[in-house]
């Protein structure tokens, strides 16, 4: 076999191998989303954001960009100080709030320390919430839990007003995802959900 035929044979073999491996790689699920750095310098003035804050229930199907998702989750309950304290207050700095992001590509748990999302469920539940993104708030079962969730969803509402996103807080839908599906600790429960999207 001359050199030309040898190279052609090698090239053909590589093409065949690629044909087998590329589709497999394309369907491997991504279990971690490392979010881009949140933009802490933008947004509208606070008083204007308060004036613009309102509930909306009709959203387009447009997915929330990763940058908006990053900014939104950091605003919700991100770390804003070197000692690990958060953008929303909790009693005695307990930080006992879990935020799940329900999107078309599954349900994800927010890790503030790594500013990343970890997949906990493959299922698409967006149709149940009628929004491209719904934040599911689970809190410890104590007298402070609902107060903690309220502080977090208010931050999200203000970010949405500043970014031109619509949002609505609702109790309807707290049972769409079970504690087992969310892998919640025994003393946690979902207390409220907050749907987010582009206004229709």
UniProtKB/TrEMBL annotation:
Pfam families from the entry?
Answer: Nitroreductase
Highest taxon of source:
Bacteria
Citing just one GO molecular function, the answer is: oxidoreductase activity
Indicate the segments forming the Nitroreductase domain, all copies.
52-198
InterPro entries in alphabetical order: Bacteriocin_Proc_Enz, Nitroreductase, Nitroreductase-like
Protein's UniProt name: NADPH:FMN oxidoreductases
> Origin organism of this chain?
Candidatus Desulfovibrio kirbyi
